Task: structure prediction
Amino acid sequence: MLLRMSTLLLKTLREEPADAEVPSHRLLVRAGFIRRAAPGGYTLLPLGKLVLDRVTAIVQEEMVAAGGQEVSFPALLPREPYDVTGRWTEYGDLLFTVKDRRGVDHLLAPTHEEMFTLLVQDMTGSYRDFPLLLFQIQTKFRDEARTRGGLLRGREFLMKDAYSYDLSEAGLIETYARMRATYQRIFTRLGLEHAIVSAVSGAMGGSASEEFLATAEVGEDTFVGCTVCDYAANTEAVTTPAPPARAVTAPALAVHDTPGTPSIASLVALANERALGGRTDWAASDTLKNVVVTVHHPGREPEVLAIGLPGDREVDLKRVEAVLSPATVTMFDDFDSRPDLVKGYIGPQNLKIRYLADPRVVPGTAWLTGANESGRHATDVVAGRDFTPDGTIEAAEVRPGDPCPACGDGALTMRRGIEIGHIFQLGRRYTDVFKVDVLGTDGKAVRPTMGCYGIGLSRAVAAIAEQHHDERGLVWPATVAPADVHIVAAGKDGQIEAALTLGAALSRAGIRVLVDDRPNVSAGVKFTDAELLGIPRSVVVGRRLDEGYAELRDRRTLERTEVPLADVAGVITRELG
Amino acid sequence: MLLRMSTLLLKTLREEPADAEVPSHRLLVRAGFIRRAAPGGYTLLPLGKLVLDRVTAIVQEEMVAAGGQEVSFPALLPREPYDVTGRWTEYGDLLFTVKDRRGVDHLLAPTHEEMFTLLVQDMTGSYRDFPLLLFQIQTKFRDEARTRGGLLRGREFLMKDAYSYDLSEAGLIETYARMRATYQRIFTRLGLEHAIVSAVSGAMGGSASEEFLATAEVGEDTFVGCTVCDYAANTEAVTTPAPPARAVTAPALAVHDTPGTPSIASLVALANERALGGRTDWAASDTLKNVVVTVHHPGREPEVLAIGLPGDREVDLKRVEAVLSPATVTMFDDFDSRPDLVKGYIGPQNLKIRYLADPRVVPGTAWLTGANESGRHATDVVAGRDFTPDGTIEAAEVRPGDPCPACGDGALTMRRGIEIGHIFQLGRRYTDVFKVDVLGTDGKAVRPTMGCYGIGLSRAVAAIAEQHHDERGLVWPATVAPADVHIVAAGKDGQIEAALTLGAALSRAGIRVLVDDRPNVSAGVKFTDAELLGIPRSVVVGRRLDEGYAELRDRRTLERTEVPLADVAGVITRELG
Result:
């Protein structure tokens, strides 16, 4: 490959693009890798396409090495199979739907569990056809409420989705482990520092799932680690260790006038000031905060739900949604319509709506909480005696220092990451729905169990840029760089000619070359552009050309070394190893 | 590459699929290359995906060799740019439209002239940035009224679309010629026998265009050649040579009672029987047939239009639509609502609707035609005297033997083909609309002129299958076959092991190998499957394995030769040369 910048569709920008909030987005636009074409839609320019192609090739190669077989499904599908599994409704607004000329409903498939399962049903008959690992690489469409960060979260993106079918639980676990190892290898080859964290399965359904997060400040996902053990989880998946239930020792519930205390802080201050219940050491964690939310179940009437949690915690709606998925959740704000819900003074006693409590609200715990009358609170409101929640819910924010739910000894630390992969043990959700049965080794019918495995390919490009840049520009890992070497002709005529000759020689040796042969651009601009573009290795053909020397520059370390022109090919070939 | 049939997702079918009308569709389904997933939507199974990937790679390579730069645009685009050019409306029902969650109109772009032109406007500034040749490879969606033939015409297909921008007419012509040559090279490499024919531009707009048609009985396009010169054109693009206008010598128009003659045949019979106008040699070509159609202009009220043509010709609605594009045309059938249009007795005299005539209806020609009264016709109805058409139209069917419009000496011959490529000189339609101007060499603004160039990649797979099969199955050209060699282990155990060993050795040598290592399948079934799958070369590891021999089979010629096992790699490597 020999690309010439004199003809390349490339325009680098000195100024920051106005709509770019994250470094990868800014740099990919400034360096001419991508360009905005539509809301949440980006065009890959030639250099961006080359990077995406290299990322895709690595993923494809590793999937095949793991026994994957590549297929390609239509993206535009009729509604029917998605109605059968309920996902037509569950996906809600995220789904792009399309009516054809006859008015028939179609969707742009977000993922293809239904279709792969129907194909497997169609094309298999017995245990001899299993296990199966199938994948495709396809453009996906999602009607995101908020797109973000260029390729990070768009309405259209390239995805590798894979589906496995095994005949036993042990088989699924083995395939899942192989895919997990394959993903680690893929992300390592892509140069992505990543964490593997426990996750919740969301609209996919199924039992176990893990996310691969590329660590990045700008990541939308927060994940926790433990200071002692190797526990790692998406905050949505963090479970709160419940203390043991205790015997009731508290006196009877007592109601107090607490005017003007709709907030926890004002309540605690007043409780200590008035020594409610004879105590002056009230803390926010002694109070029970009751938050009302509206749960939007797909295809059903919204539900008003109350959530109780220790007063020192905020509700984390992402965690609530993870539990209630596929429903979405918003804060309830129509208190005028519900006189039974006294804003700021709600208690769990005699609530007329469903009430779910934090796992820490175990039987026997006594709380300072609302009395369901304006300006009044109650002390010694005891779980299991004065109220009984309809269930528990992981709704409270996770905080650094919280106890580790895995080992119990360590404390949680928190970091941010970009979700670049997600693997699921789906089990038989889909094979059950479509009644997929094949002949087992014992002559009886057996139902395959399923896994699914996704990688966001275009998002991976953004994640790589996020992890690999400095203040001068992009610094691509050699495995995905748009070229192996960037030859800069510092001056005109002779130097351009020498640069092109060198480029042709390297290209013949199988090296991917970009030559900056622009005749009317200064050396300074060319050097700045080379640093912005971030190809790992530059060769400057400049002042010392006449003496037979070129300068090698390392984009990452910024080191410069002079080498005889004749040695350049050898040095680079050795480096590419 | 080493594929093992024991684990490959493959199920060959002995019976014909019920819904398949054309050979390529039947064979691609039977051989397990594709499978129906939705109306007009096919899944590429592993072998089908491999063929499509090889086709794509050839196209990509030739496009880059021709100076093309690959980019990738979103497929889901906002309506606005397509409103500006009018194509939102012009495309009509073929366009899949999508509303996002905010109710904003989007489309699944059929082609990207608008977006490429806006990108070029955004990223260029002066003559130094030109010429430009950009392309992408993308899944396209079209809401076809009638899908057909598996991959031949689906609602979703893979397309390579390219766009060129030049600063002069001469530049466009040069680029167009380069793309034309590139396409010839591509289709030759794909093994596609093809014709290049003049075409009409349709909804693309622009001046000159040519289609590449893969010759095939089942093709939807009919094209003509000349027995003398090298003229070739799609029937839609055939022009009818107009005879010179003549002086009026005919007597005055005379009306006759002609009861029960609504058809041309009945009219001619009666005219001869009654010697109308003193003649008994009336032929259909002496009559003027007037056909009423409804023209559906996008975004406007339907228009009722009459078309006049010699009575020995039928109207070809595809030709009419090619002229009236982007309008669509149907036969008018609501004569009850129009008492002025007397079905079977319409004449061009005093018509109240627009009337377009065949080019043969030149001034001075006299016709036997309807008198606009039931049961009456008129003789000596003279063009230019008794009626004046509102214009001419190419509406008449083209027939073998018609005079060649290019040389005038030859006669037209007719064949059928599958449209696999289309190239257009668009000119400035799009750069005018978006007012794209760049700095010219003389310091003045210059407006780029545009070409566009498409290849249907998934359709090309079907066209190849259409041209390359026999009664036993597919016969892939070596350039696109899913594998280079198909090794058949005729028996069990030792032969399977030997086949896999040979396969591994060939694979290490860079040969793409499919091994039939199925343990429970008979040799006969394996041979039948090998012929159905159509990989160019088979190696049978069978009876003479113990003596160190294998059998080579040529799929096309069905020739068999025995060679020492040790020579197999050498023979195949030489063949792949």
Notes: Chain A has a mean pLDDT of 94. Residues 254-392 of chain A form a domain with the YbaK protein fold (CATH 3.90.960.10). The CA atoms of residues 365 and 522 of chain A lie 74 Å apart.
